[in-house]
């Protein structure tokens, strides 16, 4: 199962294709009877969710069985909260991928499944409700005689969950929250914006950092890191970095082997400095490319609208930060800040990335599912429209909305106004400040509390 150094990336994590997936079979110890059983291990990659390790253990001696799913992915900079209004059977059939750190709340019932109380799983909304009702019913049998008042409250919750499952309750809301930022809930009307689900990012508190294994304080004596944090560079340091690519070693987020990260500070004309970072692990094949603005959060948010109708528009440079939403009004499409991540590319490159992600997601989650034929058909039509944009057969507006103000689209007529480019600044809402972690940030008089 081990991957030799320099092996191809796809040898480790395979694409989710049932016709080509290979399962590793390993003889391993049974924790129930102490004899040897069999573990089947599958390493696969799911679009929008990256890599997963799926394992199944079976002991022929005591018949003990165990199945689990573990995300083999990095912890995101922020947690994710998804609020879903359940209106019809389509919502109950949504695919859900959770991690060990996912909490699930039903606000109308004041009920919560806390993090660390269940293993990672691939299921549906209905599957979660069914499993929860079964577990609560078993627990209720145990405490029915000893604690009747608690059992009575559990009965209310059980009946409420059954009502949600049977669609007899008036539009209940389920909230899925994950401190690692790696939860997934499918969108049945993809690629259009989800009308019944709201997705937002949040800044983890110290307790959540500790829960997922992040140290509260960074180790400043780590010998693997050979450069200083960006905030400590002086002007001469940055000037030197503009002339060269800086390379440093750090543990791989996937396999923890030491791998190389290349970093380059570059100036975007008429915008600001950005930091481009690329990491490649030769041990497990993990790769990532990130673009970070070098100037922090701007005083105001930014909305950029560019009219795309000619080849020169497709060749415009574009910086989409990791806090930026993407809208295409002519397609009734919106991609949140979590989609496509931060990247510096061209408009054509951005549309190509969007095309590939939507195509991969449709193939992974909806192919072979008769109930999802409508989603596949809509996706095919949408992908054809994206191709029409790339060939200039369909003029559209590309709108970037970035509360942090760190996104950019190249002007073709600098320093004069570009007739196809509109830039507007706006004041952030309290909710946007909260998502950026600004509400709890003290910038005046902080030294008095030291």
UniProtKB/TrEMBL annotation:
It holds the Pfam family Zn_ribbon_ZPR1. GO terms for cellular component: nucleus. The keyword Oxidoreductase does not apply. The keyword Ribosomal protein does not apply. Gene3D superfamilies: ZPR1, A/B domain, ZPR1, zinc finger domain. Residues 28-187, 250-411 form the Zinc finger ZPR1-type domain. It comes from the Eukaryota. GO terms for molecular function: zinc ion binding. Keywords: Metal-binding, Zinc, Zinc-finger. Belongs to the ZPR1 family. NCBIfam families: ZPR1_znf. This is Zinc finger ZPR1-type domain-containing protein.
């Amino acid at each position: 199962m081990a991957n030799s150094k320099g092996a191809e990336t796809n040898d480790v994590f395979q694409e989710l294709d049932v016709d080509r997936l290979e399962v590793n079979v390993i003889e391993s110890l049974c924790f129930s009877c102490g004899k040897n059983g069999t573990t089947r291990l599958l390493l696969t990659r799911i679009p929008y969710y990256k890599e997963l390790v799926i394992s199944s253990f079976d002991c022929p001696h005591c018949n003990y069985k165990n199945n689990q799913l573990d995300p083999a992915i990095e912890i995101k900079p922020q947690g994710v909260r998804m609020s879903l209004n359940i209106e019809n059977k389509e919502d109950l059939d949504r695919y859900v991928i959770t991690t060990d750190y996912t909490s699930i709340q039903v606000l109308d019932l004041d009920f919560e499944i806390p993090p660390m109380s269940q293993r990672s799983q691939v299921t549906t909304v209905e599957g979660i409700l069914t499993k929860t009702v079964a577990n609560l019913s078993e627990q209720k049998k145990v405490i029915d005689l000893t604690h009747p008042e608690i059992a009575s409250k559990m009965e209310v919750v059980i009946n409420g969950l059954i009502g949600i499952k049977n669609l007899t309750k008036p539009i209940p809301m389920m909230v899925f929250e994950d401190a690692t930022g790696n939860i997934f809930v499918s969108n049945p009307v993809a690629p259009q914006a989800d009308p019944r689900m709201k997705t937002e990012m949040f800044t983890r508190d110290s307790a959540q950092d500790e829960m997922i294994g992040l140290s509260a304080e960074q180790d400043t004596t780590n010998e693997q890191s050979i450069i200083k944090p960006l905030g400590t560079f002086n002007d001469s340091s940055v000037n030197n970095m503009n002339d060269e690519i800086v390379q440093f070693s750090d543990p791989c987020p996937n396999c923890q082997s030491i791998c190389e990260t290349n970093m380059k500070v570059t100036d975007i004309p008429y915008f600001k400095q950005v930091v481009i970072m690329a990491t490649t692990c030769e041990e497990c094949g993990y790769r990532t490319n990130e673009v970070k603005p070098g100037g922090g959060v701007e005083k105001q948010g930014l909305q950029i609208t560019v009219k795309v109708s000619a080849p020169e528009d497709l060749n415009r440079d574009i910086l989409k930060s990791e806090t930026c939403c993407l809208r295409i009004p002519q397609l009734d499409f919106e991609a949140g800040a979590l989609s496509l991540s931060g990247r510096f590319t061209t408009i054509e490159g951005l549309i190509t990335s969007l095309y590939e992600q939507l195509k991969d997601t449709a193939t992974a989650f909806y192919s072979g599912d008769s109930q999802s034929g409508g989603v596949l058909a809509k996706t095919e039509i949408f992908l054809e429209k994206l191709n029409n944009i790339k060939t200039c057969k369909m003029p559209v507006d590309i709108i970037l909305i970035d509360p942090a103000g760190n996104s950019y689209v190249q002007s073709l007529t600098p320093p004069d106004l570009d007739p196809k480019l509109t830039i507007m600044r706006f004041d952030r809402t309290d909710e946007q400040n909260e998502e950026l972690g600004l509400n709890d940030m003290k910038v005046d008089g902080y030294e008095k509390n030291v």
